[in-house]
């Protein structure tokens, strides 16, 4: 399992250049995908070529400072979940970041298991089986 200590960033919608008529990925998303790839390689992540794989992802979000002690405890116990962003956009951003780095193409992923929760720090956990 690989753990990247960073604030998870969801995949943003493609933007349109009105002058050229071409679509492009916003720089924040593109930079984050490159960072995921860099960290995966740096931490010794395996390359799975064209084998079918199962992707397990965990997204941790730091509990906001504005929460009361009671709400913070509830959040850490899983009674309050982060509503910051959609889990499918978080997954897609990591998937695209791992493309050609962890696997040949994301079409080889046959199953995805993903969770998001509050924790004491921001992180992304990646496990490929």
Automatic annotation (TrEMBL):
This is Endodeoxyribonuclease RusA family protein. One of its GO terms (molecular function) is magnesium ion binding. Transmembrane segments: none annotated. Pfam families: RusA. It comes from the Bacteria. SUPFAM superfamilies: Holliday junction resolvase RusA. InterPro entries: Endonuclease_RusA-like, RusA-like_sf. One of its GO terms (biological process) is DNA repair.
